[in-house]
User: Which sequence fits this backbone?
């Protein structure tokens, strides 16, 4: 606020209107290359000052500062997923990749997925305390069962499906991300192009296409 008052040094604070704040935001964007976070901080500071100090109407001019870009991750096709799984010799890493693609779990959810949450009989996975701290159910493709069986036979996890070096402790986010990245590079994919998040979104897209096909055929 001190910088704004300095910018409008010929005006009293009460005289600085909404359009003046917009002009100031445009000024710092052009003059200093201020991004989303800086402009948002200025706008919110103005909102607080005018509503709570001067107690005059004020609307945060959110449309005048840049919005954060939202980009979807790159999606893998079915053939790419098959290539990825075939290129991975490590049973644990291959199972991680298959689970990401087959269940659509988020990274944090996969790291903390417990053995007790896998219902192979009903082809389902229970996600405990997922996004929004809510439980939910997701599918477990039966084609994943042989992969899960081979992995479990080789590693014998105790509590979590994917455990770190300490038995009974979940694999860390970082370690799981490294495993996925290494597998992507080994499969010959461009470094940094795909991630665990890409596999999750590939699952979502595949599921939507399957549902669309079923709806069309019916």
Assistant:
């Amino acid at each position: 606020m001190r910088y704004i008052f300095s910018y409008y040094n010929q005006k009293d604070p009460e005289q600085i209107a909404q359009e003046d704040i917009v002009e100031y935001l445009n000024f710092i964007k052009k003059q200093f290359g201020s991004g989303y976070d800086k402009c948002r901080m200025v706008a919110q500071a103005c909102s607080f000052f005018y509503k709570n100090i001067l107690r005059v109407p004020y609307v945060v001019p959110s449309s005048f500062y840049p919005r954060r870009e939202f980009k979807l991750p790159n999606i893998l096709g079915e053939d790419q997923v098959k290539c990825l799984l075939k290129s991975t010799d490590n049973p644990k890493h291959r199972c991680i990749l298959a689970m990401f693609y087959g269940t659509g779990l988020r990274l944090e959810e996969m790291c903390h997925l417990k053995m007790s949450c896998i219902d192979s009989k009903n082809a389902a996975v229970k996600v405990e305390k997922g996004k929004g701290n809510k439980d939910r159910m997701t599918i477990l493709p039966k084609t994943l069962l042989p992969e899960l069986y081979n992995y479990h036979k080789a590693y014998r996890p105790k509590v979590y499906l994917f455990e770190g070096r300490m038995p009974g402790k979940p694999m860390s986010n970082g370690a799981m991300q490294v495993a996925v990245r290494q597998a992507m590079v080994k499969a010959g994919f461009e470094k940094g192009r795909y991630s665990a998040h890409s596999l999750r979104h590939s699952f979502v897209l595949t599921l939507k296409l399957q549902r669309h096909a079923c709806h069309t055929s019916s």
Observations:
- Residues 2-64 form one domain.
- The mean pLDDT is 86.
